[in-house]
Prior knowledge:
Shape: elongated
Number of strands: 14
Helix content: 40-55%
Number of helices: 9
Strand content: 15-25%
Order of helices and strands: HEEHEHHEEHEHHHHEEEEEEEE
Strand order of the largest sheet: 7-8-9-10
Amino acid sequence: MATSNKDFCHLCCDDGTSTEAVTWCTECDVFLCADCGKHHKKSRLSRDHKTMSTEDYHKLPKLMQEFSVNCHYHRKKFEIYCPFHDCPCCIQCITDKHKKCQEMKPLSDILKQFKSSASVHHLEKEMDNVKENFKTMIKYLIDRLSISNDQKIKGLYEIQSVRSQIDAFLNKLEQNIIDDLEFQHSKLTSKTNILLIQLHQQTEKISQLQNQFSKITQYATELQMYVSLREIEKTTSKAAQYIEDLKNGDNFDEKCLEVTISSELQSILKDVKSFGDIKTKSRPYTIQVKAGRKDQAQFLVPIIPAIEQIKPAMQRPLTIPVNMNYEYMFACRILPDNTYLVLNGDYYYKYLALFSNDGIFLRVVVNLDSSSLDVCFVRNKTVAVTLGIDNQIAVVNVERNKIVKKI
């Protein structure tokens, strides 16, 4: 009804002129220029109609702007209400789609005092409750996020606390074994150093005896040599015996320092695969929301009939020409313009046929090269047909009588 820039008077447009509209009639669902608006107010049929400026019209909800008081199919004003389909109808709708519907009512009776009815009040209250429920849920989820963050911080503290305890414990064990290593090493080196001092002393003593022996053999008399060498022999024998005693003892055993790590400690590297487990436990929510109404008025909540309430009835037969082979009609689809598309899948006669809303044969849309079992509506004037043997789908433009492509 409205253009992107200006709104034009519908009545003037019908007369072939383009006059900018200034008002919109809520009853007639038309834009009116200043002159047409004056006549509209003077007319007995429309003088009580409510109007508003085009500026206010564009401030209305989009739902109101898109709604029309005229039938989408027949361009006639809604006058009847069908309780079975829960929809308004025009006069022509009754003959086309609502022949079997019962308890049809004048739309004016349904709409009488509708704005002030309890159902409207209940709907308004229901919207308030729904909005409040959403706010409650949002607050609840925000609180849960805050609690989750606190739980994360607490978890990090626990992990770091355990890590600190483990570090302190391992540091203590490490220091203990280092102290023990130092003690054993000190004990070993101390004994070795004492033995080294003794050996150096014995070596020095033997060196002195060697010097004495050289001088004695050169300058001493036989008696002096005899006595001196006997003393040197005794000292040398003691030194040799000292060596034997050292050899027979454990003084020269290779003493090696070995560090053996506790098997329990080493098992940590093998057996411990993780620091711990992180799990998300679920429990019933504690949020309190208001219950919604289940008894809204019939015209506010669509009534969907149960299967036992649906009664099939013959709408109209399709008149097939005598010379047309129609033994294997596998599918029939009603297109948006209320025409009928029939698929015949006979081995020799494979085609799509189009019939009018009255069931009169119009034409063969396309002949098919392969047997088909089904057809479905895609959009606009396009349908899709299965080609079973070829394992393909043919996209057909019904208006152009042409296979657009095969998939």
